[in-house]
Amino acid sequence: MPHDTTTNYGVAEGGARVTLDETKTILLVGVGGQGTILAGQLLAMVAADAGLDVKVSEIHGMSQRGGSVSTIVRVGKKVQSMIADPGCADIVVAFEAIEALRAQQFVREGGSLFVNDEQITPVPVNIGTFKMPQGVHERLAEIGANVIDAGKIAREVGSPRSTNVVLVGALSTALPFEVAEWEDAIRRRVPPKTIEANLAAFARGREAALA
Amino acid sequence: MSKQLLSGNEAIAQGAWEAGVAVGAAYPGTPSTETLENLVRKPDVYCEWAPNEKVAFEVGLGAAMGGVRTLVTMKHVGVNVAADPFMSAANTGVNAGLVLLAADDPSCYSSQNEQDSRHYAAFGRIPCVEPSDSQEAYEMAQQAFDISEQFDTVVMLRETMRIAHTKTLVDVNESRTALEPRAYESRPEKFVMMPANAVRRTLVCNDREDELMAWAEETPLNRVEMRDTKVGIICAGALYVHVREAMPEASVLKLGVTWPLPANKLRAFASMVDACYVVEEANPYLENQVRALGVELAEFPGGRLPRSGEVTPAHIRAAFGVADPAHLAAAEGLPPRPPAFCAGCPHRLVYVELRRIKAIVTGDIGCYTLGAVAPFRSVDSVIDMGASFSMAHGMELAGAPERTGRPVVGVIGDSTFAHSGITSLLGTVYNGGKGTLCILDNRTTAMTGTQGNPVNGVTLTDQAARVNPLDVPAGKQLDLVKLCEAIGVDEIEVVDAQNAKEIRRALKEATSHTDKLSVIIFKSPCRLIDRSRKPMPAIRDCHRCGVCIQIGCPALGRDETGHAVIDPNQCIGCGQCAQSCPFGCIQED
Questions:
Q1: Nearest CB to A124: which of B335, B367, B469?
Q2: Which domains does chain B have, with CATH numbers?
């Protein structure tokens, strides 16, 4: 099936307005195919509906073939650059644990790091040119990561493919938007048959992040 | 009016459509591809994939000459391919508006270089407009058509990857300007570029340049923003928002038009600030032009900006001596995660064999460029679209196979072959070249996202209707065998790219004789268009030899004891690992 590169969607009119004193930078990192782009779109929808300016920068191209991927979402009163430099991300959400370590320099002092407790072996490790890093959990604990087993939660709610929405639930706890606004974005964005499972995944992701 | 979150490419498609564009033509190329994929979905506009950018541009020029507004899109290196008609069109001008979207890729996120397309605008003396976000992309796409018709010229709309692939909010009108096609009458003095006419057209273009320079001084697309007068920064495109981020107090001359530059406005701006700087990335395009106009630029107090690669707000802060915010150091000792062939990719087994026979591979542009990296490391050159076959011929002329004892094999994909590999093959046959050339026919243009092409017969209109290349009747598809026969290739064979034994036999035969030119068409669909799965094979009594691991399948790994293991989530049951196991331990069910 030729893939669909057209992803524009409208922004709801008259959403409740949220004010942010400063632009917030959210960096989503993972491995191609993990659903970082959908997660970024949900965040962008919520922020835009709340009357904020939004920029979402996606890296396409060579990254599609199982490589590292990243999406930068910046929200605020008036967003200028679409780039997140080291030390500039208020929140990093890593869909994979090695990618969390790879992105650690982007977290600003006092920022949040949510990490999915999953390690996907890169091809260079499989073929023996590199080794898996040791002590990943310890390293994540050292940098203050909030580690969540999003894959397990997604399976528990009966929707293994909703791992990304579990992480969106975790992310939502660090942003000033209402739960109902997130739920509304999920309803509008995911396939109709998967709405209930994704709402459950979102709620469990929030619980896990706040636990 | 509605507010929409659009990428730069989506915004350009929307803007062009509202400007009444009637025809779109392109060859896919990151980061430009989605523009026409969005435009084709709109009513009252016809869009097509051309075999290459030169053809796309010529189709566009013909349509504009014929009287309808036309958009042509391509990536920066595609402009090289289209440069021949582009430079003549710069002389002829247009009839209805013609806009060329050139999408540049600083830092080479998915390209072979980071050339700056604005050099072409200056070279051809055609206006270049540059948006800084999707709202501007939407508006400039419309203004570009007006400029094109007002000054009778091709207009370049130049974007970079960050503009193309960043979604920002756009106020969309959703109202299309209804345009009747412009009258057409033969004007050989304008469009027949034989010497006498070309010389006269150059005089017309001289006058046009003067008019454009006067216009550039007045247009609101070039905007002076006075703030603190200690620092004044000249910038355009994505760099404008980076400058606003990094240096919010600085005065800025934001250039929406980057050819021609507004000389007086630049000089006036420079005179209003204590120190004037140009901030740009990858190429010193603006800097050289601004200096040539006699504007004095200051040295950055914190050291110069990077000479290559994307410039970010952090680079700009550093250049002005502003410290980075505190942050952790980058983690060390992490395994890289480069892109890799998908599980079941039909390119894999061909590279396994090319590696085994130690072939010198002249490669080409596409997913199969990944044959250059571990575990294959089997590609000797990747230069430009279509270079594989012609370079293999050159290697043959240099006597490389005899001197190295290694066969030279040219490797190209189906879409790239249609793009510009056909003429390479023609040149080799015409000149009596010998050797082995492979077409990896995976039935799609995979790297850019499974676009249609002449080989699979899927048009852009078909693609918008979600036609799968595997469902296209043979009569609509380019017959590669007949084409190679017509060109005069000695030996032509079609081989199943999922059959390791057949791949080995075919490559052995082709590379064993030095008196023939062989083309092997390795055929099997890309796994992105053929999503069928078979049961996962079972591994029994693994000898831990690691041979299967070296086919580089993302679904294959080893456990702590060295036994091969298959990841059931990634495995599609293609059987490539089973074919590679020398002991028959991997069994397909």
A1: B335
A2: 2-218 (3.40.50.970), 223-319 (3.40.50.920), 348-523 (3.40.50.970), 538-587 (3.30.70.20)
